[in-house]
Write a structure and sequence with these properties.
The chain is of the alpha/beta class and 306 residues long. It contains 12 helices and 9 strands. Bound molecules: zinc ion.
Length: 306
């Protein structure tokens, strides 16, 4: 089915529990057997360093996740191929699944741009400046100060612009979001929903969504129940509501999916793990044309890749 998913936290889970198998790990929402069955084409794997890791150990932790990506996700499987560029993403052979690295939060680099350059050399193609709290680049959405980009953060966005790397606005404070809209050349919201449908602070309001659409950015609708519905009782149809809302703002060709599988404890009914994608696709096919569904499942992501 050519599913492209812009965000999962498999690497973090496998770092926390080295006994997990990527192929058939029961503890993973996104495992290879399910991806094969449902028809995965490209998965973005976030390097997310848990908040509990001390500052001095964060960069090492990020490097360990890069190692897990290569040793445990790619190397053992003939049908998993690394994706380092738009060209790679456009040319994933039939029967193979592409895997691409992203960074969720620049806490791991401290104030060292060289560390980020190292991660880019290792294959990271999309960088979220923050997770929910503040760091040297900016504040995240739950940091009460609500600051925008620091001077260091601006230099990092410049670096992304020069190296054709996505700057991910999911998790950013509102001020930092608008700073990135001003400065970023390649902007993505990898896993965020519409605030007009569900008021969680992680979601984006209509002005923000419209700004992303005007910038021709990708918007990954995410499966996090508390971002889907105020009462958290989410099911597949709630994902359709968010997609429909972003379509109504003119974003039909910007929309894709960023599940946040393995980064969430609660999951929507019917989408308990990657296999549930089949149910979501059935539902999408009821409301949208084949061309639109192909866009949501991946074409929109590939088209917007720098
Ligand atoms: Zn996240």
């Amino acid at each position: 089915m050519n599913i492209h998913d812009a965000h999962c936290d498999v690497l973090c889970k496998m770092w926390l529990d080295p006994s997990l198998s990527f192929e058939n790990g029961d503890g993973l929402h996104t495992n290879l057997n399910q991806m094969r069955k449902a028809g995965a084409k490209l998965q973005l794997f976030a390097i997310y360093v848990p908040e509990s890791v001390p500052d001095g150990a964060k960069f090492d932790c990020a490097l360990e996740m890069v190692d897990i990506f290569h040793e445990k996700v790619i190397k053992p499987y003939d049908d998993v191929v690394p994706v380092y560029s738009k060209e790679d993403a456009e040319n994933i052979p039939d029967g193979k699944i592409g895997a691409m690295l992203t960074l969720e939060g620049c806490d791991a680099i401290g104030k060292e741009a060289g560390r980020l350059k190292t991660l880019l050399r290792l294959g990271v193609r999309s960088v979220g400046l923050t997770w929910n709290y503040g760091n040297a680049t900016a504040d995240g959405i739950l940091e009460s100060r609500g600051a925008g980009l620091s001077d260091f953060g601006r230099s990092i966005v410049d670096l992304h612009n020069q190296h054709r790397i996505w700057t991910d606005v999911s998790h950013l404070s509102v001020r930092a979001f608008w700073d990135v809209i001003d400065q970023g050349r390649y902007v993505i919201a990898s896993h965020s929903n519409a605030k007009a449908i569900c008021t969680h602070p992680r979601n984006l309001d209509n002005q923000q969504l419209t700004a992303l659409i005007e910038k021709d950015s990708f918007i990954g609708v995410t499966f996090v129940p508390k971002f889907l519905r105020n009462d958290r009782n989410a099911s597949v149809s709630d994902i359709i509501h968010h997609i429909e809302h972003i379509c109504s703002l003119g974003g039909t060709s910007n929309i894709g999916l960023g599940s946040d599988f393995d980064g969430i404890k609660e999951v929507p009914a019917g989408l308990e793990c990657y296999e549930g994608y089949s149910r979501l696709i059935e539902e999408l096919n009821r409301y949208y044309s084949k061309e639109q569904v192909d866009g949501f499942l991946g074409k929109n992501l590939i088209a917007r890749m720098p």
